[in-house]
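Entry type: protein chain
Record version: 2
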Amino acid sequence: MKGIYIRIYLILSLILTISACNIKENDNISRSAPPEDKPLTVGFSQMNHINPWRVAETNDMKRAAAELGIELILMDAESSQSRQIQHIE
């Protein structure tokens, strides 16, 4: 019985691998650039600004946004997951 499960697993793995190889690069991907007169806006809700790692992450987000000319909306959720969800919504 164990051999049957192994064969089924191997067949399913092979099917998934083959189907993943057949995905075209441009399938379901929109590569249109935003209008030139309107900058791209990205929202980022950080859980808190207490932890040094999170401060570094926020600084990296600010730096990357500035380099790319992206308007970054940054909000501090003050360690509240529900507040963070509200920010994103």
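Comment: The chain has a mean pLDDT of 78.
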